[in-house]
Amino acid sequence: MCTIVLSLAPGTAWPLLFGANRDERLDRPWDAPGRHWPDRPQVIGGR
Description:
Elements: E1 2-8, E2 16-22
Antiparallel strand pairs: 1-2
């Protein structure tokens, strides 16, 4: 499973926090990042 966590807090000491993990086979097929979920247009990611 791929996990990405973003925290956006403009105007703070840490305005952007980013964490990511991919703990599976690296040769698995994937799609380029995009807006794959029409009901959540603010979410961009691969699948």
